[in-house]
Structure formats: C-alpha cells, structure tokens
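Re: Re: ligand-bound prediction request (bumping)

Still looking for help on this. To restate: I need the protein modeled with zinc ion bound, output as structure tokens. Inputs repeated here so nobody has to scroll up.
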Amino acid sequence: MSDKEALKRVAEKLRRAGASLPAPELTGTIEGSVVTGLCIALALVETEIEALADSMREVQRLGQDIEQERNFCPRCGKRTKDMTHIHTCTPPSTEGG
Ligand SMILES: [Zn+2]
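Reply:
Sorry for the wait, this slipped through. Here it is.
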C-alpha cells in the first residue's frame, strides 16, 4: 500500500468518526469540540494527500525532462522526438578547405 492510499484510509476513518470539511460551526459542547478536533485532523491528512499528489506530479515532470534531455544532441542542438531512431549527425567541420 502506498503512502497516499494509507492516508486516504485515515481520512476515510476520520470521516466515519464524524469529521467533515469544511468543519461545522462551533457548538460549544464537548461533542462539538471532539468533532472540531477530528475535522482539524482530517484537514491535515487531506493536505498531506494533496502534497503527495503534487510531489508525484513533480516526479513525473522531472522524468519527462530527463527523457527529453536524453534525446538532446549536444553536437547540433537537435532534439529528436523519435525514441527508436538513433540520431546521427555530421559535426560541423572546423577545418578550412
Ligand atoms: Zn545531432
């Protein structure tokens, strides 16, 4: 089970225990305070799930960047999109004649 799935389970359990977002109005009762506490916990868990989703997107984006860089030819500056085709190029001649 991934961290995200574990957190989603915790969020689900908090909801079953009475937590909801946005948190309900303060009632001033002990029961109300317990629900508020649960809501705060749920908010924290939801924030963490969101942060995990963001970091996963970041990893995917970095992966794409690396993939692109691998297709970059430093010799001619070309970026080949075709992964199966091996790019070959003639280096610019520096010799006169
Ligand atoms: Zn090239």
